[in-house]
Input
Amino acid sequence: MLRPDQKQGLMNCLGIKTVNVIELAQKLIQFDTITPKGSECLDFIQDYLSNLGFEVTRLPFSDVDNLFARKGLNSPHLMYVGHVDVVPTGSGWKYPPFAGIVDDGFLYGRGTVDMKGSIAAFLAALTKVEINGSISVLLTSDEEGPAKNGVIKVIPWLQETNNVPTYALVGEPTAVTEVGDTIKNGRRGSISFDISVYGKQGHVAYPQLADNAATPLIELLYELKTTLDDGTPDFQPSNLEVVKLSMPNKVYNVISGEAYAAINIRFNTLHSFESLTERVQLAMQKVHEKYQSICFLITPLPSAEPFISSSADWALMVSQAVSSVTGILPNCSTSGGTSDARFIQKICPVVELGLCNKTAHHVDEHANVADIEILQKIYENLIQNNLTAFLRT
Output
């Protein structure tokens, strides 16, 4: 639960019926929420939303805490999706990573960009608008980690309790140079493969008496590093990257009988988990024909399928909200990594819109104070104007 000083600060904000978005972002940053920690931060947000008239439900799964809050029962139902968990801090920070310091117009702290600044902007926006239809907030503490006990576990509950939204907005950092210049209307897929190769250990001076596991592994990786495609109108070309490479060998005069690698493929809609797994297996078989005494073990680790939002109208609504506030017409993009949008897109149209992603996960992660304030105004416009317009159609 909240410490008395934290709760009093929150109540002071609510008591005057207005919330300073930067002070709210600072409060969120001050919670150490390295994955999967998040319960204290969600306690804070639960009190905040309850005082705004939201019905709040906590949905813990294993060591992960999740929060769902809803106000109103009518359509359209807009759900904001975010995560309070953050990646480890690293060392060398200008300011303590969980202090939430403002300096020269910038807010510093782990999670400022990814994505507590966005959460603060949406929570603050809720105090400035009249809610038409219904609004909900879904927050997890398992987005930066395995993502096994967060949003993916909440979705069945949403379906069972008649809480599936009309539209969803994910507050991930999407902007490149200024807030609103880019929204994400889809994402590439992601699949990894662990590759183990087993040969025969031996003396470096007598290679004919050994089977060096590294040699066929290198050839396999070379075989795999080919152009996968040229992209599509909605997606950039797929890419395969070697992300791990190792041999359990600590000396210089031994040929290793074991070698390991891991690859990750970010792919567009020209591929699938099945087609990429087949591609890797075919490459392995080709190399194995040359090295028949070698044993290969390949383990696919699927993570996310590629997708495009199922509603162009929703992307247009979000774009109009951005343009109304900033004058910018956003680019629609599917670039970048994965997010919880990959789970949400299975139940409703989803678009992502948040702060600039330049310092996400960096030491000295920070955001321009003005950008957070602009994002709040965009969220206000989206809730008040665009959803009201939807009701009239």
About this structure: The domain at 189-303 is CATH 3.30.70.360 (Alpha-Beta Plaits).
